[in-house]
Amino acid sequence: MLTMHPPCILEPMKIEKSECVIKSYSFDATGIVFEPEGVVFAESEKDVIDTVRHCLKTKTPVIPRGAGSGFTGGSLPVKGGILLSLERLNRIIDIDTKNMVAEVEAGVVTGELRKSVESFGFYYPPDPSSLEFSTIGGNIAENAGGPRAVKYGVTGDYVLGIKAVLGTAEVIDTTKRLKKNVVGYNLTPLFVGSEGTLGVITRALLKIIPKPETRRLILSYFPELTEAGKAVTEIMASGIKPSALEIMDRASVECVKRYKGFSIPQNTEAILLIEVDGTKEEVRKYAREIVKILKAHSAKTKTARNEKEEEEVWALRRAISPSLLHIAPTKINEDVVVPVDKMAQALDAFRKIGKLYGVPVVCFGHAGDGNIHVNVMTDEKDERLFERAKKAVREIFIATVALGGSLSGEHGIGITKEKFLPIQVKKEEIHLWRRIKKAFDPENIINPGKMGLI
Ligand SMILES: Cc1cc2nc3c(=O)[nH]c(=O)nc-3n(C[C@H](O)[C@H](O)[C@H](O)COP(=O)(O)OP(=O)(O)OC[C@H]3O[C@@H](n4cnc5c(N)ncnc54)[C@H](O)[C@@H]3O)c2cc1C
User: Fold this and answer.
1) What is the Å distance from ligand 1's center to 146 Cα?
2) Ligand 1 mean position to 70 CA, how many Å?
3) Cα(354)–Cα(391) distance, rounded to whole angstroms?
4) How many CB atoms sit inside 10 A of residue 73's CB?
């Protein structure tokens, strides 16, 4: 459904221009700084429409922003303009257990939605590590995933419909609570992973599922990283669907140990963290089979005994990225993805690239779906080291694509990965992206200068 609204110009006082606001909204999780001309805190769909109308009239870029936790500069005003914050558009409109959907405004924090849904005995699985602060709008725009994507999929698998304001200030609404709907082009998935370049999402209709009865978490310690990679491939081929399968290499474990205090067996080169869920009987059976596979690959195993222990392990996993920042504040953090059967090869290749360029490379991430967080540990102040690190990053991308992989499994392209796009995507395809954007945003005012889109 497409709606036109009567002309309306944003009242000037709704654009915040104080130095404090401008500075606070001039960066995201990359730490890169671009100051906006002003910030609008939308409290209704009408505020969004008015802002887009104002920007159309004044030919000013408008940049949608959720929590600003993106890792690729997606919400930075690289071409100036108005930052449109959705954080106050944060109502959970409805949790409809009969149709198994939740309807929410774009600025709802993911963890808040999860808690609400769980209070009804349901489950919203997408679980980016940033779930305590990132928003549903940002999650949709980046197609965010997390540890449980290996079994339950990523945000896009739960987006049934959206309401969005296009670059023309028209509104599209695809939020029908239907199981089937075959009427013309399906516009909903186009917004998933679009990095805020097609329109401003104001509302989302999300699928929810019954909450699993129980779960179990197994920790395993490997003397060889490649053995951990092989165990991952074997578990994934065994027919068991773990609800999480995370890997940490030795360097990442060492970092967390220093930061948090955590004891592991001597000679541990890699840790796998495996979670299974389902009925009590299923969980017992899956855990038994997984431990057998792990032991066949020389791993020592330990099972969390209660929810408290489980949460401690997850907290450790979530602490990796921040703990690395303590050691290398300007580390380069990439999130490549490779076919699951190429995990061991990829980890080996990244380690060799690190050695070749003389920069430590720390790997951890979602092994079960081949999504590896590769951290090239560097220091911007050391020019020579930083140059070598940048070369290592390019080599990592080349090796990834050569293995049939992709530049990003979660964080998107934004501005930080634009220059690497040609390694993976043909220019004809990028031209097609530009034509699609033009149909939604003919004046190129919505988040310009991202994703190779000009
Ligand atoms: C500590 C930490 C851990 C993280 N862990 C994960 C992880 O496990 N998995 C993962 O996938 N990501 C992770 N991230 C990255 C980040 O949290 C995700 O990309 C998240 O989806 C961004 O949401 P946000 O609300 O912060 O969006 P922002 O950073 O504000 O914006 C991100 C992009 O979405 C667009 N956007 C935001 N809201 C809208 C809207 N309403 N309509 C249209 N476009 C919009 C912006 O223009 C921008 O291009 C992590 C980040 C941090 C800091």
Assistant:
1) 12
2) 4
3) 10
4) 25
What would the pLDDT profile of 207-225 be if each residue is shown by its tens digit? 999 999 999 999 999 999 8
pLDDT at residue 150 tops 90: yes
Q: Find the 196 Cα to ligand 1 centroid distance in Å.
A: 10
For 335-347, what is the mean pLDDT?
91
From 76, 85, 142, 150, give the residue whose CB has the most ligand 1 atoms within 8 Å, as the site to mutate: 142
Q: Which of 408, 340, 333 has its CA nearest to residue 376?
A: 333
Using most ligand atoms within 8 A of CB, pick from 34, 51, 65 the residue to mutate for ligand 1. Answer: 65
Looking from the CA of residue 69, the nearest atom of ligand 1 is 26
Categorize the per-residue pLDDT at 7 as very low, low, confident or very high, splitting at 50, 70 and 90: low
Q: Residue 132: what residue type?
A: E
Q: How would residue 316 be classed by pLDDT, with cut points 50, 70 and 90?
A: confident
Say if residue 103 is exposed, middle or buried (CB neighbours under 10 Å; 0-12, 13-18, 19+).
buried
pLDDT on residue 355:
96
List domains and CATH numbers for the chain: 2-87 (3.30.43.10), 97-210 (3.30.465.10), 214-402 (3.40.462.40)
Q: How far is CA 131 from the centre of its chain?
A: 10
How many angstroms does the Cα of residue 138 sit away from the middle of ligand 1?
A: 4
What's the gap in Å between 134 CA and the centre of ligand 1?
6
Which has more confidence, 5 or 169? 169
